Amino acid sequence: AAENACRITLGQVNQVRPKLPLLKILQAAGAQGETFTLKEVMHYLGQYIMVRQLYDKRQQHMVYCGGDQLGELLGLESFSVKDPSPVYDMLKRNLTSAAL
Ligand SMILES: C[C@@H](c1ccc(Cl)cc1)n1cnc(-c2ccccc2)c1-c1c(C(=O)NCCN2CCN(C3CCCCC3)CC2)[nH]c2cc(Cl)ccc12
């Protein structure tokens, strides 16, 4: 019925489609599929940083991504998780809306 059709599209409306370089990073962290919510993108990027041990063990808010594909995407050698702006700028460049 109409309300079901509406609910299906609402479920889709907040999906984003990562461009290929970002999708490869998310898949390396265990992501399946090609569209995600922003929350899922952030979760998989966090997992990627953990799995690739890109964070400093002593200063755990510092991420050293130079030499990693993540650093290529961000255009940074390092960043602090306390200042998410470089990450959001990268996402603006690497996410397209997956709205139907
Ligand atoms: C608030 C949030 C955040 C989220 C987005 C942004 Cl742009 C900044 C900050 N955050 C706070 N610390 C981290 C973090 C720190 C070191 C290593 C991995 C993650 C995160 C990040 C998450 C995440 O999904 N975080 C869940 C809880 N985290 C706590 C920290 N935990 C680890 C900290 C290092 C030691 C082991 C536990 C992992 C789970 N996703 C991210 C993706 C990126 Cl591109 C960068 C950072 C994060």
- Mean pLDDT score: 92
**Largest sheet, if any?**
2 strands, antiparallel
| Gyration radius from CA atoms, angstroms | 15 Å
Ligands (ions, cofactors included): the ligand C[C@@H](c1ccc(Cl)cc1)n1cnc(-c2ccccc2)c1-c1c(C(=O)NCCN2CCN(C3CCCCC3)CC2)[nH]c2cc(Cl)ccc12
Helix-and-strand structural type: alpha+beta
Separation of termini?
18 Å
What's the helix-strand series?
HEHHEHEHE
As laid out across the biggest beta sheet, the strand order is 1-4
Helix content range: 40-55%
Which stretches are low in confidence, meaning pLDDT under 50 for 5 or more residues running? Answer: none
Shape descriptor: elongated
Give me the number of helical elements: 5
Strand content: 5-15%
The count of β-strands is 4
Question: How would you describe what is shown here?
Answer:
It is a single chain. The chain is of the alpha+beta class and 100 residues long. It is 51% helix and 12% strand. The strands form 2 sheets. A two-stranded antiparallel sheet has the order 1-4. Strands 2-3 form a two-stranded antiparallel sheet. Helix 2 crosses helix 3 (38-51). The protein is elongated and about 55 Å long. The relative contact order is 0.19. The model has no long low-confidence stretch (mean pLDDT 92). Bound molecules: the ligand C[C@@H](c1ccc(Cl)cc1)n1cnc(-c2ccccc2)c1-c1c(C(=O)NCCN2CCN(C3CCCCC3)CC2)[nH]c2cc(Cl)ccc12.
